[in-house]
TrEMBL record:
Organism: Marseilla massiliensis
Keyword Heme tagged: no
Bilayer-spanning residue ranges: 21-48, 90-112, 174-191, 197-214, 285-303, 309-327
Main location class: membrane
Chain ranges of the ABC transmembrane type-1 domain: 20-339
Protein location: Cell membrane
Descriptive protein name: ABC transporter ATP-binding protein
MF annotations from Gene Ontology: ABC-type transporter activity; ATP binding; ATP hydrolysis activity; ATPase-coupled lipid transmembrane transporter activity
Alphabetized UniProt keyword annotations: ATP-binding, Membrane, Nucleotide-binding, Transmembrane, Transmembrane helix
Gene3D superfamilies the UniProt entry points to: ABC transporter type 1, transmembrane domain, P-loop containing nucleotide triphosphate hydrolases
Amino acid sequence: MKEFLQVLRRFVPPYKKYLALSVIFNILSAVLNIFSFMTIMPILQILFKTGDATSVTTLAAWDWGNLKESLTNFGEYYVGRLIAEFGPSYTLLVIGLFLAFATFLKTGAYFLSSATIIPIRTGVVRDIRNQLYRKITSLPLGFFSEERKGDIIARMSGDVQEIESSIMSSLDMLFKNPILIIFYFATLVIISWQLTLFTLIFVPLMGWIMGIVGRKLKQKSIKAQSLWSDTMSQVEETLGGLRIIKAFCAEEKMNRRFDKINSEYRDNILRVNTRQQMAHPMSEFLGTLMIVIVMWFGGMLVLDGKGLSGPTFIYYMVILYSIINALKEFSKAGYNIPKGLASMERVDKILKAENDIKERPDPVHVSGFNHSIEFRDVSFRYGEKWVLRHVNLTIEKGKTVAIVGQSGGGKSTLVDLIPRYYDVQEGEVLIDGVNVKDMAIHDLRQLIGNVNQEAILFNDSFRGNITFGVDNATQQQIEAAAKVANAHDFIMETEHGYDTNIGDRGSRLSGGQRQRVSIARAILKNPPILILDEATSALDTESERLVQQALEHLMKTRTTVAIAHRLSTIRNADEICVVHEGEIVERGTHDELLAMDGYYKKLNDMQKT
């Protein structure tokens, strides 16, 4: 219970007004329910003992000390007058209809108490998902190398849904059932302590059994399921494109995009659940109405002397009808809450994950790149394994430096240190003499453009992908970037031009087309520093030629760090660094490295064969 209350304290406070309304409606529902019971008891006593009803001719003074007697006298007096004036059959019908109306008011209050809980349930679930999504976009890439993407999605979908169905649904238990049970118990003691004792002995057992074997009614919505699928698709897309999101400083854009569809899903499921909540009060109202009809018909049989013992039967049914539901909810919560707490623990592994890439309280703000990028005695490791050792490298502004070497030698890790996707364990990375750890992360990544081996695109239009991370770009600027990237012509050949959707991860495009769109995205961002991670290695010859032309346009007037697999693409680099087992073992121009007759020449010779 302690863990359960901690969860409520974390997520429920923004919805306090709904809690207050729920308590008010629950009290109103309980009072109206008791009022219905109080009208049934004197009715049954009088109708099945007609002589006593007509014998009460004096209305006694109200006595709070003898509440039961006062209520009995009040009911018998007025019902007796009604019987004497209109007859027992008509009286039974009139008071039965009055009871049905009171029950209608009671079930209306019951519905409102449940309806005011729904915004809390759906709102808390939305808030947890938003917190998870924001946490995902803020955590460093290293976190996701240790976590399975499918597991993260499962926590965001199945576990959060379990929290909603287990923990949040138990809010009814906290704010409805205790009120109802207290009022019912006090009323039962006043009416008949014998029947109260019977209830305390047998009804909890019956409620527990019903709670175990009872089936929970679920109403499904096709639209809600579709929106849920879209929500999870965006989560998966975000995880796959996290590098680009961070590189283009588009965390807030993606957060807003996710919040929009998540809120739409929440609004839809709110309506579905609100309609679902009507099932219980409606069934209770119809059940009570049926009891009224049966009571009227049974009362006629009693008045006709058919020997039916109506009061015992009807009172027994009414008590069970009211008390079992409340006790059943307690038994449901008893085994629901632990399941929800287990899911909450899994969700908290993400929400409470430590972000190692931290920004200083007073970071250095930069708006441009002026001199150089410097790796000063840099060493880096994943866990206990060193990937880079004592790397020293200076990249002057306007120069192109290529990084080549064997797979797994540390090339990608080296360039990932520049935008702070990871932090070094030893040494430092500096831009214009300022340690990147001292810079504002947003400012740092705004200086850098990325074109990766795998073109990471999003399920959006050409326009949406090219302008990713760049707000308020004009059509002229978008087209200019696409033309430089050799992408304008094939974009215009599509059905809707720049507004054509490219499919999930650009699935409707060829590899070369995807790569040129990603280059257009980098061109529009117009960063002073460009990182190319084997941007042409996965392309055919014709696509490579077009992409290489686009890259050459992109690299003009920019400082470029290029990881190269095909050495032919970096022949004209100002400097080529050969990385072997985490160290720079050779450096120089293409011709100089060939003359060394070392690692580079071996790589070059292998590609010729």
